[in-house]
Amino acid sequence: MTETLSTNQSSTNQSTPPAQAPILEVRDLTVTFPNPKGDVTAVRGVNYEVMPGEFLGIVGESGSGKSVSSMAVMGLLPSTARINGSIRYRGRSLLDMDDHEMSKLRGSEIAMVFQDPLSALTPVYTIGEQISEGLLLHDPQLSKDAAHSRAIELLRVVGIPGPERRVRAYPHEFSGGMRQRAMIAIAIANDPDLIIADEPTTALDVTIQAQILDVLQKAREITGAAIVLITHDLGVVAGNADRIAVMYAGRLVETGPVDQVFARPQMPYTTGLLRSVPNLATAGTQRLVPLEGKPPSLSNMIPGCPFAPRCPIALDICHEVEPELVSHGTPDVAAACHRADEIASGHLTAGTIFPRPEPVEKRVKKEDADRVLEVTGLQKHFPLLKGAVFKRQIGTVRAVDGIDLEIREGQTLGLVGESGCGKSTTIGEVLEMVAPQKGTIVINGVDVSELSKRDRLAMRKDVQVVFQDPMAAIDPRLPIGEVIAEPLTVHKVPARQRNDTVAEMLELVGLDASMADRYPHEFSGGQRQRIGIARALVTNPKLLVLDEPVSALDVSVQAGVINLLEDLRDSLGLSYLFVAHDLAVVRQIADHVAVMYLGRIVEFGSSEDLYDNPQHPYTRALMSAIPVPDPKVERSRERVLLSGDLPSPTDEISGCSFRTRCPLFSLLPESDQSRCTRDDPQPRQVEATLVACHFSERISELEHSGRPRPTQH
Amino acid sequence: MATDLPISTTPDTEVVPRRSKPTSRLSLVWRRLRSTPRFWVGGIMLAFFVLFALFGNTINIYTPTDQDIYALNKAPSAQHWFGTNTIGQDIYAQTVAGLQKSLLIGIIAGPAASLLAAIIGSTAGYFGGRVEVVIVWFINLLLVLPSFFILVLLAPMLRQLSWMAIVVFLALFGWMIMAQVVRNQTKAIKDRDFVKAARYMGVSTPRILSRHIIPNVASILIVDATLGVVSAILTETSLSYFNLGIQKPDVSIGTLLAEGSGAAVTRPWLFVFPAGVLVLMLFAISLMADALRDAIDPTSGANRD
């Protein structure tokens, strides 16, 4: 400790004795990127410290400076960046070290886990070589053989099956989850004291995310290292971190122990974030609270609190003076807000800062409404070909393997599953409107295989689509007025009428009609998604296919888009086919939910029944994998961890396709297991949902075992 | 009809008067183009050369074929502004005439090749499968055939035809590599969501190609068309050098350069004036193309915020 602390944040931490010196100390860190159009200050005076063995979660939206500040710690910023302030690791200043010294420290004492493990691993070396490289670099005495066997051991630690064989594999032979495990293996190889994980699970599926977080916790137990986890997902922090630091516009705006911050946030931004995130525990019963506006541009900062323009309780002073990050009565918790005292003392509650919008009237679900979409036995197999000139079939990809769906007018069907389960192929088949390989697709009572070319074109009016990435789904070269009007040009609507409709649509989705001649890149992500929705609505469709419509958006923006979709559905009487991997989002909006696994629907039911009492082990695992942004709930929850990755759809799995990962399967006696391996389970009614599992009556056995263990039968 | 719609009347927000017609894409491109100095510099230079080619000889007393036997091999003077060649022909008059022909050949053949490349390349990339295999096979066939050799074979025929035959020839043999590039770009764009969205909306295939795919490869096509002008002029030059291109009495910058290249050191005016005109003109076209690319593509460098 060479400097006195200016703030009193967390000098006493729950899990570590107060006498201990912090392992990492960041003081007044400022990072500026020079730019001809005005310098961009990505980090503006950040102070924090990490105690030995502590798990710190840094949360922020994209552009909040959370990654840049950690890159500064690792010395990985481009040389053009101007870094001021001090970063001390065990009292040594990292900013004064030269590259050679820094390299010695990196990997041996400070390790990093990156977001994208594919680009972080060198494709031309085996995983084993890459782990050994780190070992040998920092310990020249180590023999090659010893490094090799240590690599195998490390792979075993991070839970890679068959490490003796896998150590010789190349990165491209690993799945995303396994690559991230390998990255963690490299990170812990030299027994570091500090691991910085930058969005380590963002690119992964939820069940894999749960595994990786588990491995990260394990790595912490083994090495005793402190972990700094950078993420945008409040749920991930809630379940894992001891302490949380919330970043906004390049500054920390609130820090404190997770329990206190989640229970009683003192900074309105944290409050807003927490209330805007769909929460599995509360979703569907209440409206989300949108956090309006967007983060300020970092190139020309306005004076005052950067959150003030979005803050519902901003005073005059908030627009003039930027508040300091100081404690407001509560020890350990610090917040940068002029009104934090009022919030801390309880005069201002979350409800008054961000009042929940009026709950929508409970819609009367008409179970006998007309069917808008009816899919029966839909199948799509792709032949797997090999050979350059003479192609021969070596297998079949069962992307969609006989699924049934139905959506009634005014209702929402949520289609949930991990990537690669066939969701996208399913909606692709529906949207193509041609006869499927097998099965039938009936839209508005008309079988698509019987459509003439002209009828099909007319039917496209009734079915429109909103894509996941609003960046990719809108032609960047057209002004948005033309983007939105495009479906109308197809149906030969006269230009004058088109322009009026476009203006109407823009206002319907909460944009200004005068924005019609701007180009897509002038809009933020949330606005672009609204443009996508406006385009989908312009033909006055009956069914909207929503392909992960909010997963590419920042958390604070998601709530606004979800609310908009809910309102539009109810006011226009739309039906939605809502495809997502996030069960919390689906619960918020869907009436019925279908859970998909390897081209099959494994469970189908109304969302209340399915969420309250899931019957299929996969549904249970999916639900327990989704982090809930509430530390108490998160800690007390039963976890059903799935082992391994999603099998390739080319694999021939006899019987139930889920049995290779099924946590229930491993609990069953052998006689029952053979039934799973032999018979393909057909959907059947169990309790209130349709379940494709032979033994879903015994689902409760999972609750007594967080992880698979031998049965007592 | 527009009056039926509610107009935003929130008092504290700026009320934006709704135009009856949103600005069209073309006028937006033009608005952006207007504000780029490069466009004006290039445009004015090119306009100068075009005017020079069209009207340069009206102020000159000599025609390209006139021979001034009193001024053989003369350096530039008040009489002969760019000097004369061995048989007393006025280089200024010849440069103007050559510029006319070269401009015409370049401006037709370059963009024509790019257009061919755009149509064939995007068709191959968008449809894939058999169509693509056949087109790629055809492209490869054209690429391995030495176009120069074919020209030598065709030379007797070309001599009888007009210079337009050269234009057609240059376009026909200039599109293949660009078509491959366009094909690859198309394959990448084809799977982007906005193309899928257009397909699911029922937009017809030619319209998807012309409205979504080709504009998205437009920036490389425009650069290619510019380079096409350059390479068309250069190919024509080398053809003319071997007496396979422009035939007398027609002159082009190519034939002038070919004639003057031998005397570049001893009588530099024979070479420097046609070459200088050529270089400056190509520079002007490049400047304009660069500005145009930035105006069409809102995501390219200059427009990025």
Which labels suit this protein?
heterodimer, A: 713 residues, alpha/beta, Rossmann fold, 3 domains, 8-stranded mixed β-sheet, 32% helix, 21% strand, disordered N terminus, B: 305 residues, mainly alpha, MetI-like fold, 12 helices
Question: Gist?
Answer:
Chain A has 713 residues and is α/β, with parallel strands linked by helices. Chain A folds into three domains: 1-109 and 190-359, P-loop containing nucleotide triphosphate hydrolases (Rossmann fold); 371-602, P-loop containing nucleotide triphosphate hydrolases (Rossmann fold), CATH 3.40.50.300; 604-704, no CATH class. Chain A has 25 helices and 24 strands.
CATH superfamily of chain B: MetI-like
**Which whole number gives the mean pLDDT of chain B?**
80
* CATH fold field value of chain B: MetI-like fold
Using only C-alpha atoms, the radius of gyration of chain B works out to 25 Å
How many separate domains of chain B?
1
- The poorly predicted ranges of chain B are 1-22
Determine the fraction of residues in helical runs of chain B and give it as a percent range. 55-70%
Name the biggest interface. A-B, 47 and 38 residues
The description of the largest β-sheet of chain A is:
8 strands, mixed
Instruction: Please work out how many helical segments of chain A DSSP would assign.
Output: 25
Report, as a whole number of angstroms, the end-to-end distance of chain B.
36 Å
If classified by CATH, what would the architecture of the largest domain in chain A be?
A: 3-Layer(aba) Sandwich
Number of domains of chain A: 3
By secondary-structure content and strand pairing, the structural class of chain A works out as: alpha/beta
Please give the CATH class of the largest domain in chain A: Alpha Beta
Shape of chain A: globular
* CATH topology description of the largest domain in chain A: Rossmann fold
